[in-house]
Structures are given as C-alpha cells and as structure tokens.
Automatic annotation (TrEMBL):
Involved in cell division and chromosome segregation. This is Probable cell division protein WhiA. The gene is whiA. SUPFAM superfamilies: Homing endonucleases. Gene3D superfamilies: Homing endonucleases.
C-alpha cells in the first residue's frame, strides 16, 4: 500500500499547471529539493534529479519538455532498491547544454553572480507562483503522516539557503513552522492539523484532503471519548476514596467507648454510610429520609469526631 505521502504526491503530480510562471516556480523548487547541477567539460550545465516517486519523475520530465525552450536531452534511469520494502529510485539526467544554461537562468538558479544557492525572490513575486513553489518543494522533499499516526508534515532539504527561503515563504503565509536538523538535512515542519490542512489545500491536494479530514475527525471523536472516560474515572476514583475514608472513620468512631453517647441521628448516619460505602451523597440522603445538606452536615460532624478521636489516640 502506498504511504500517505506517496498518495499526496501522486495526486499533486496530476495537478494541471497552465501558467508558465508557476511552472518555472514549481520546477525550481523541485530541482532545489532533490537535484544537483553538473558542469560539463564544455562549461555547460546539466541537472541530475532523483525521486522515489514515479509520478514526480514523470511530472519533472513533462515540465522540462513543456518549457518551450527547445529540445532538452533527458535520460531516465530506474534504480532498483536492493533492500526489500525500499522504494525504487528514479533518476532524471538532463544532459549539459546551452539550453540547460538558459533554463537555469530563467529560473534564477544561475544569475550574473554565478550560482544562486536558494534565494528565489524573483520567482516568488506572484501569489500563484508562491503556491507552485511550495508544491514543488513538497514533491521534491516533503512528507506527511496520515493523521491517525500523529500530525506531521515536513519539508527537508540539504540546502541551507533554500530551507531559509522556504521558511520565509511559510512565515509569509503565517504557517506555524518548526525547524530542526536531521543528519545533513534542514527540516521545516508543521504539527498542527489545521496548518497541515491549509498547506495541502494551498498546494492543490484536494482529494487526499478529504481522507485526511475524515481520519482527523474520527481521531478527534475518539480522543474526546477517551477524555470523557478518563474524567469520569478520575471523579469516580475520588468518590470511592472519599467514601472509603469515611467508612473507616465511622467504624473507628462506633468502636470507641465514648461513642455510646453518640446521638441516634449520627449513629444512624454512620451505619448508613458503612452499609452503603459506594452510594452518592444524595442516595445516602434518600436512604436516611433526610435532605442532602442534612446528611452532609452529619457526615462532617462524624468526620470531625473521628479526627478528634485519632488526635487523642496519637497523644
Ligand atoms: Zn505563477
């Protein structure tokens, strides 16, 4: 079964991108996430791009062909994983040529100063492109948990400058972003369900959102029920402890010689409590045929006497 991240990426890979500006923005983020650039002997640039997801590889290839800058030479290699349960790798090689130089210039990855490590502000002037850029980043190095495994969405990259760029962008959209490092990777993450939903909606993952939201709702109902049960258990525990303490006190008091002088009403109350340790105050009031406040008053009096008795014994 594909992972939830894989499902999201599969859906995003079919997102229909029609604006050329957005196409450049998404491709730039995608390449920055998982691509490396190579320089040929003739000083032309080439790109190596790898992904675990076949649909992402296809999308990147389609983008490279759809940029209308001429025939870019590409090669797709599938690397089979030797380890079981590890996914295959798809490597796209874009052969070095003047067209690739032009493409990287158009994307702002190379500029007059040479390589631009990750400041893509020129690609991000329009709102539409910002969304596409985040989609590219997710397709390249994103992952998201299914909500039943805890809320977590992350974008991880080995490029520090680029992670700063993504952080700035996510902050602009007021996402509550956390950041950390893992091995050689800079990781930005979201932990709140609402933020994850907004992010997925922003980058165009509408179908998986339905699944995400229904799992989240189910989880929240389950949590709510658990909270209620825990709360009731805690209350019950308190009642049981209180009545146990009372019963012990009453027994002690009735055993005491001086208790012979105990008024009948108090004696009755003490016995009622001993015989009915697990009933509530109102039920005890019913048994005794008096009001709740009356029972409360008598019980307090009995407890005070028991306390007094214990004090005297300890002297
Ligand atoms: Zn755009």
């Amino acid at each position: 079964m594909p992972s939830f991240s894989m499902e999201v990426k599969n859906e995003l890979s079919h997102f229909n991108e029609t604006n050329l500006c957005c196409l450049y923005a998404e491709l730039a983020a995608l390449l920055r996430m998982d691509g490396t650039f190579v320089l040929s002997a003739k000083h032309h640039l080439g790109i190596n791009f790898s992904t675990e997801n076949a649909a992402v590889a296809r999308r990147a290839l389609a983008f490279l062909k759809g940029l209308c800058i001429g025939e870019i030479n590409t090669e797709l290699v599938v690397k089979r994983s030797r380890r079981l349960q590890k996914n295959n790798y798809y490597i796209i090689r874009v052969m070095p040529s003047s067209l690739v130089d032009e493409l990287l210039k158009n994307m702002g990855i190379i500029n007059a100063d040479g390589f631009n490590m990750g400041k893509d502000s020129s690609l991000l002037s329009k709102y539409c492109c910002k969304e596409s850029y985040l989609r590219g980043a997710f397709l390249g190095g994103g992952s998201v948990n299914k909500p039943d495994r805890g809320y977590h969405l992350e974008l991880s990259t080995s490029n520090y400058e680029f992670s700063r760029q993504l952080l700035t962008l996510l902050n602009q959209f007021k996402f509550p972003v956390g950041k950390t490092t893992r091995k050689d990777y800079y990781v930005l993450y979201l932990k709140e369900s609402e933020a994850i939903i907004s992010f997925l909606r922003m980058i165009g993952a509408e179908q998986v959102l339905e699944e995400f939201e229904s799992t989240r709702n189910l989880k929240e109902v389950r949590n709510q029920v658990n909270r209620l049960v825990n709360c009731e258990t805690a209350n019950l525990q308190k009642t049981v402890e209180a009545s146990l303490r009372q019963v012990q006190n009453m027994k002690k008091l009735l055993k005491d010689a001086k208790a012979k002088n105990l008024p009948d009403a108090l004696k009755k109350t003490a016995w009622a409590r001993i015989n009915n340790p697990d009933v509530s105050l109102s039920e005890l009031a019913q048994i005794l045929g008096i009001g709740k406040s009356g029972v409360n008053h008598r019980l307090r009096k009995l407890e005070a006497m028991a306390l007094q008795l214990r004090r005297c014994e300890n002297k």
